[in-house]
Amino acid sequence: MSGGSMQQTAGDTVPALELKDLRKSFGHTEIIRGANLRVAAGERVAIIGPNGAGKSTLFNLISGRFEPSSGDVLLSGRRINGMRPFEINRLGLSRSFQITNIFPKLSVFENLRCGVLWSMGYKYTFLKFLASLTDANDRADELMAQIRLDKKRDVLAMNLTYAEQRALEIGITIAGGANVILLDEPTAGMSRSETTRFIKLIKEVTVGKTLLTVEHDMGVVFGLADKIAVVVYGEVIAFDVPDAVRANQRVQEAYLGSAVADSQGGAS
């Protein structure tokens, strides 16, 4: 009885992010075909699937870059269909991209300060001297330490290594205080050692937040995610803990197959 009660309580909890029969067509081509997903607050979810499965399109629908053809995207129970990306961001969802998206001619500190200004209520008030905004400057310093770039404070972003630029983008992504974070292939292009360090960093900076990440590296997926959503032909065919997804026959047939076997062999 207690187990049933717990399940009822969990079902009644408003998810941090929910997709309801989400569909997206481009002309006569349907890319997302009735995707459904419920992500609880604080969960780390990896979205995987073959090339062309619709993973990036899902991210674009969630973050407001695309508008659904039908269905709903709910952020903490609120329908966000049709909202512009900056409006969704102000409601608590932030996203990074496959291609590093930073201000190359600003310093590390200046990049992070730009990220915190709006969330701290300064909006477009440029009459204030930025140096006098003690709270914003302190928050930027905190973020800089969090992403381990405090020793690069005054270095222009364009002069950072690739991995450092990705870390800076993570810092900018969380600077606004968003509760739901979307990361699009965050470790792409990194060496194995850089990837290992970056997974640790992502875990640290997203504590208490809801995380969705698109990732092709199965080592990253199984090392980072609490749950895995498998997208094939625009549908979520499985959503479960990593071990259950790894053992799912339908997932293996549709996507994982040798990738899972290789990761198991590599681990041994």
| Fraction in helix | 25-40%
Strand order of the largest sheet: 6-7-8-3-9-10
State the low-pLDDT regions, or none: 1-10, 258-268
- Roughly how many Å apart are the termini? 41 Å
Structural class: alpha/beta
Mean of the pLDDT scores?
Answer: 86
Question: How many structural domains?
Answer: 2
Model description:
By secondary structure, the chain is of the alpha/beta class. The chain has two domains: 1-90 and 212-262, Rossmann fold (3-Layer(aba) Sandwich), CATH 3.40.50.300; 93-177, 3-Layer(aba) Sandwich (Rossmann fold). Helices cover 40% and strands 22% of the residues. It has helices spanning 2-12, 55-63, 85-90, 108-117, 134-146, 162-175, 192-205, 218-224, 242-247, 249-254, 258-267, and strands spanning 17-26, 29-39, 44-48, 70-75, 78-79, 93-95, 180-184, 210-214, 227-232, 235-240. The protein has a six-stranded mixed β-sheet, with helices on both faces. Strands 2-1-4-5 form a four-stranded antiparallel β-sheet, covered by helices on one side. Strand 4 (70-75) and strand 5 (78-79) form a beta hairpin. Helix 4 (108-117) crosses helix 5 (134-146), helix 4 packs parallel to helix 6 (162-175) and helix 6 runs parallel beside helix 7. The longest helix has 14 residues, at 162-175.
